[in-house]
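Please review this pair:
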Amino acid sequence: QVQLVESGGGLVQAGGSLRLSCAASGLIFRSYTMGWFRQAPGKEREFVGSIRWSPAVTNYADSVKGRFTISRDNAKNTVYLQMNSLKPEDTAVYYCAAQFVGAVRYDYWGQGTQVTVSS
């Protein structure tokens, strides 16, 4: 059974930083591109960024470029989202997801972790 478990969310002041983690189990980690998404209240879920297995090519939404960094520890089956210079508009539930290499859709999703940025 595939599980993706996010952690690291919380409340932070604008300009602060948080690091989210997503631990994956039940899948062959190297076979998946890992992505981060977020959903703010009343808004649709949006793509934040992703990282491939090898090479570890990353891709980011324009709204987070230069502030967020995705990395992965393949030995720990864990992907990270380092968020710096946080803004109130970054407030959302953040989800990690796994996309099988070559697939169009993300196959597996975590339960989400809340990030709240106060002004």
User: Anything to note?
Assistant: The longest strand covers residues 92-100. The chain has a mean pLDDT of 96. DSSP finds no helices and eleven strands in the chain. Residues 38 and 94 are 4 Å apart (CA to CA).
